[in-house]
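Late entry, evening session. Most of the bench is empty. Finally got around to the prediction I had been postponing all week. Sequence below, unchanged from the version circulated by S.P.
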Amino acid sequence: MSYKWFGQFGEKKANQHLQKTLQSAHMEIRAGAYLSYTLLSTIIVLLVSFIMVVSLVFLVFPLINVVLDIGLVVFFLLIPVFISVLTFVILLYLPKSRAKTRKKKIDLNLAYAINFISAMASAGVTPTEIFKSLSKQEVYSEVKNESAWIYRDVSLLGFDIITAIKKNIERTPSQKFQEFLQGMVVTVTSGGSLRTYFMNKADQYLWENRNTQKQLLETLGIMAESYVTAAVAGVLLLLIVIPLMMIISGDWNATFLYILILIIIPLIHVGFSVVIRTMSQET
């Protein structure tokens, strides 16, 4: 429906960058169609939010005897515009966000997937069969999906394995996977040994992975010390010192204590948990 109504606009505004981003995110839709969908979704959100705000301001508020001045009325009427613009921006950014998520998963599993590839190459399995087999291994997450696209290009679309790999180099979001595939193409075209190349790459990525994990553990150690200092010892010190100072000065105002206990301390814990979770996802 969106392409039928706004397809001409979508095709006019679509570009290669958006198309490549959609492919990197494995969102199987053309750039023109996605822009049409984004525009229709934005219009629907604008209309629905506008109807809700108008009903609230001109029907609900008068019934409960709430009178708004002109400034508040204008503010409420601007809310649908803000929500629709936010929707448009989020939908445009969504392919890039999914591509980044896929990149992290590819980089995280690539070292182990190359070990699998190296083992199969040592047994004399051809590259096409290697990618076919890898495309069935759920444990390798997005590397499995990348392999499935390469095998699809060969088995379904009729490309040779080198062309299929080159096409995947252009659309994969992972720089490391691009480098691996480019090296594979160079090795094949120059008559080199794929088995040796895979084994060297497996050793390289495992070494890089060990270093990354080592850095993560060191960073977690620093985070643990910071957590004990800021969220445990520091908070206990404040909870002891502040009441004592209030007792000594005779000015008993517990407002800051309420802010500390109900707002600051939870924010400290949430902040540490978000940072640690982000670090864990990246590594």
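Two things to note before I forget:
Residues 150 and 164 are 5 Å apart (CA to CA).
Residues 194-249 form the longest helix (56 residues).
Will write this up properly tomorrow.
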